[in-house]
Write a structure and sequence with these properties.
It is built from 8 helices and 8 strands. By secondary structure, it is of the alpha/beta class. It has a single domain, classed as P-loop containing nucleotide triphosphate hydrolases (Rossmann fold), CATH 3.40.50.300. The strands form 2 sheets. Strands 2-3-1-4-8 form a 5-stranded parallel β-sheet, with helices on both faces. α4 packs parallel to α5. Bound molecules: adenosine-5'-diphosphate and zinc ion. The site of adenosine-5'-diphosphate (ADP) has 20 residues, from α2 and α3.
């Protein structure tokens, strides 16, 4: 099964995506994490990627597609993937469909998490993440504090604020999302693959609740 996660930066795609991945027994791939791993490890290509990410701009389609398809070709993706952060443009979506069709696969669901910009800003500027790239657990200084300040509960490594989670860059990322997302959402809506969940950070609806709702839906519709 292939599930696409759509939503503004910081909408909870990563957290919900990881939960679904555990429940459904398929891998969770975050394009953002994938690209950040290149920034840390691979020389020239890493520098190029960093120049986009640090400004809150998108990595160009051609490069984004190449790196994600390389990852999707690995063995652990055979049974399906929760794709978080990709596709982010309509051309990426078209290219993904083409790629999957060569493997006799298709997108089964596009899950959109919808929040207002105000909620997003409140959430992201309180976000800290684990620096261990094999862990990448996400915390929130208001809603999900680590037990020990600055230390990951899961693996004991240091936590940090992502460079692009600073307020100015978040605003830029929201602008970019606005420009690219409506085409993408329409693309999946037309194919009747869109499942949208409206969220409000003070409503008490948690990421667990969303993941459970989606699992129930998938079961009922036998996807
Ligand atoms: P968020 O969804 O919280 O903004 P991500 O970790 O998904 O963060 O992405 C961080 C950055 O990585 C984006 O701002 C962008 O620069 C780059 N990126 C991630 N996915 C894509 C993609 N599909 N296409 C182009 N750039 C991407
Ligand atoms: Zn950790």
């Amino acid at each position: 099964m292939y599930i696409i996660m759509l939503g503004k930066p910081g909408s909870g795609k990563g957290t919900v995506g990881k939960m679904l991945s555990e429940e459904l027994g398929i891998v969770h791939i975050s394009s953002g994490d994938l690209f950040r791993s290149y920034v840390k490890n691979a020389g020239k290509i890493g520098e190029e990627i960093e120049s986009y990410i640090s400004k809150g701009n998108l990595v160009p389609d051609e490069l984004a597609i190449k790196l994600v398809e390389k990852r999707l070709s690995e063995k652990d993706c055979e049974n399906g993937v929760i794709l978080d952060g990709f596709p982010r443009t309509k051309s990426q979506a078209i290219e993904l469909d083409r790629f999957l069709s060569t493997k006799n696969q298709k997108v089964d669901m596009a899950l959109e998490l919808a929040l207002t910009d105000e909620d997003i800003i409140e959430r992201i500027t309180n976000r800290i993440v684990c620096t261990n790239r094999h862990c990448r657990e996400v915390y929130n200084l208001e809603f999900k504090k680590p037990k020990q300040e600055g230390i990951c509960d899961k693996c004991g490594e240091k936590l940090e604020q992502r460079e692009d989670d600073k307020l100015e860059t978040v605003k830029e990322r929201l602008e970019v999302y606005k420009k690219t997302s409506s085409d993408l959402i329409y693309y999946y809506k037309e194919k009747e693959l869109l499942y949208s969940v409206k969220l409000n950070i003070h409503s008490g609806k948690t990421s667990e609740d969303v993941a459970e709702e989606v699992e129930r839906y998938l079961k009922k519709n036998k996807r």
